[in-house]
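A reminder from the course coordinator: this example appears on the midterm review sheet, so study it carefully.

Given structure:
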């Protein structure tokens, strides 16, 4: 029994000397601490930047959509086709990579504002459907304008929650609803010109 007690006390002394050695030696402690905290810190920073970019793209697209819709409503622009509409939105947008190729537009006429149907443009597979209607209506028509663009995410992490498409990207949308001015094209020209 005495041998076991001596053995344990010797091991305890060795352990205490060893622990004092490590306690005094703090070389590399910052590197080890940074190793524990660095990865979550950078994930948090990149996550914040990604969310900010998606938020910026959504606001930017919505603003450009509303500006172009206002031009249609007040007959200020000669927009006759969806291509003209896309061109005007892309000219208004501040920053959106590959805007002309990525932007899709839908302009619909409704009976009244209660009849507006805002269905999801993504199909069951998470892909953007491409059967959009472009109808500018006439004077006094209730119109909805929806623009859609695919925003490329830098970090396509499935658990991050930003992706809503099958390819891991985010679909951003602009929306405007209005009633066309009750003016004909001829009466929209200011008098005296």
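Designed residues:
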């Amino acid at each position: 029994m005495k041998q076991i007690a001596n053995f344990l006390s010797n091991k305890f002394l060795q352990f205490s000397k060893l622990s004092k050695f490590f306690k005094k030696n703090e070389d590399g402690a910052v590197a080890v601490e940074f190793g524990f905290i660095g990865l979550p810190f950078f994930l948090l920073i990149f996550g914040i930047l990604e969310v900010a970019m998606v938020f910026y793209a959504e606001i930017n697209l919505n603003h450009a959509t509303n500006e172009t819709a206002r031009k249609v409503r007040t007959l200020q622009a000669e927009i006759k086709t969806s291509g003209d509409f896309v061109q005007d939105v892309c000219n208004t947008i501040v920053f959106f990579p590959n805007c002309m190729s990525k932007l899709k537009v839908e302009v619909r006429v409704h009976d009244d504002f209660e009849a507006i149907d805002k269905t999801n443009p993504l199909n069951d597979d998470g892909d953007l459907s491409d059967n959009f209607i472009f109808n500018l209506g006439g004077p006094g028509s209730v119109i909805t304008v929806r623009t859609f663009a695919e925003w490329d995410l830098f970090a396509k992490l499935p658990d991050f929650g930003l992706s809503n498409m099958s390819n891991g990207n985010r679909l951003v949308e602009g929306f405007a609803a209005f009633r066309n001015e009750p003016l004909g094209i001829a009466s929209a020209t200011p008098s005296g010109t």
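Residues 185-193 have pLDDT under 50 and may be disordered. The chain has one domain: 30-188.
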